[in-house]
Amino acid sequence: MSSGEAPVTELEELEERARRAGPAFGEGAHILCDNLVRIYKTGGVEVVALQGLDLLIDRGELVAIVGPSGSGKSTLLNVLSGLDLPTAGVARVAGMDLLAMSAKDRLRYRRSIVGFTWQQTARNLLPYLTARENVLLPVRLAGRREHRGHADELLELLGVGACAGRTPMEMSGGQQQRVAIAVALANRPEVVLADEPTGELDSETSEEVFGALRAANRELGVTVIVVTHDPLVATQVDRTVGIRDGRTSSETLRRTSTEGEVIAEEYAVLDRVGRLQLPRDFTSALNMERRVRLELERDHIGVWPAGQGDGDE
Ligand SMILES: Nc1ncnc2c1ncn2[C@@H]1O[C@H](COP(=O)(O)OP(=O)(O)OP(=O)(O)O)[C@@H](O)[C@H]1O
C-alpha cells in the first residue's frame, strides 16, 4: 500500500498507525538510558544506586554529570563504560545494547567504542612508560595499527605535546590527567567517559583539563561525559546534568549572551510521563508538601501551595 492510499484491512490500518506514531524515546541519541536501575546487594542489604534514571545525550555533546556524594554518578559511569551491568532498564551507547552484549562484543565495546579515565591519576598511566608509550599501549593491546605520530598528535591536541617523552613522575597532576585523556582517545573511541578528572587539582589546572576535554570534543567529534564535583563546571561544558537519589533532577545549559558573556541557566527535568521534580529549597520555602495547585496560563504553568479551600486537611 502506498502511503497516500486509505488503509483497507485492520492490519493495514494498524501498520499505518504505527508509521504515524513518531520516533521512539531516544531514537537517534548517541547515549540512551531509559528507566535505568542498579541495585547492589551486600550482606542481605539492598542499595538502590540508580532508581529509574533517564538520560539522552546526542552525538558530539560534552556533558557534565554532577550530584551529591552517593547519588549514583560513578554507578552510571561504570554502566556506560561496560564495566558493570544494570539490574533493569535500557542502556544503549552508539547503537549497542549494554544489557544484551555478548562477552566478545563487550570486549570490543570497551576497547574501541568507549575510552575511560579514572579519578585516581595513578590508575590511568603505567609509571615506567612515557606518555607516548602509555598512549600507544591500548592500541597495541587492541591489535590495531596506528602510525607512530598518532600518540604525539593526541598529546599535542590536549596541550601536553612537550610531555611525550616523560614518565608520569616527571609530570604535574594536570598533565597526567591530560595524558590520561589521550590514552582514553588512543583507539579512536566514539565516547569518552571521565570520572572526576579534576578531583585532585586546583582551579587553574582544572580549567586546563576541561580545555583538553573540550578540544577532544570539538576537534575529534567525540561525545564526552565527565563526572565532577567541580563548581566551575557549568561554565566549562555545554550541558550539566544533576543527579539526585539515582535519578536525573536538573539540567544547566550554557549559552553565550549577545555581549559575549557566558551564562549558565538551570532547568528542572521533565520526564517522559510529565513528572517534574521541584527543587527542595523551593518547596520548603513555600511549605509545599504532598500536593500543590497548578494553573495553566498562556505561556507558563503556575504552582501554588495547596491552601485552605483547596480541600487540604
Ligand atoms: N559495589 C557496591 N556495593 C554496594 N553498594 C554500592 C556499591 N557501589 C556503590 N554503592 C552504593 O550506591 C550508591 C551510589 O554510589 P555511587 O558511587 O554511584 O555514588 P557517587 O554519586 O558516585 O558518589 P561519590 O560522589 O561519593 O563518588 C551509594 O549509596 C553507594 O554506597
- Could you tell me how far the N terminus lies from the C terminus, measured between alpha carbons in angstroms? 59 Å
CATH architecture of the largest domain: 3-Layer(aba) Sandwich
CATH class of the largest domain: Alpha Beta
Oligomeric grouping of the chains: single chain
| CATH overall fold name of the largest domain | Rossmann fold
Globally, the shape reads globular
Which range best describes the helical content: under 10%, 10-25%, 25-40%, 40-55%, 55-70% or over 70%?
A: 25-40%
Keywords: ATP-binding, Nucleotide-binding, Transport
GO molecular function: ATP binding
Pfam family, one: ABC_tran
Protein name: ABC transporter ATP-binding protein
Description of the molecule:
The chain has 313 residues and is α/β, with parallel strands linked by helices. The chain folds into two domains: 201 residues, 3-Layer(aba) Sandwich (Rossmann fold); 36 residues, no CATH class. 29% of the residues lie in helices and 27% in strands. It has a seven-stranded mixed sheet, with helices on both faces. It has a four-stranded antiparallel sheet with strand order 2-1-4-5, with helices on one face. The chain starts with 9 loop residues before the first helix and ends in an 8-residue tail after the last strand. The mean pLDDT is 88. The structure holds adenosine-5'-triphosphate (ATP). The site of adenosine-5'-triphosphate (ATP) has 12 residues, from strand 1, strand 2 and helix 2.
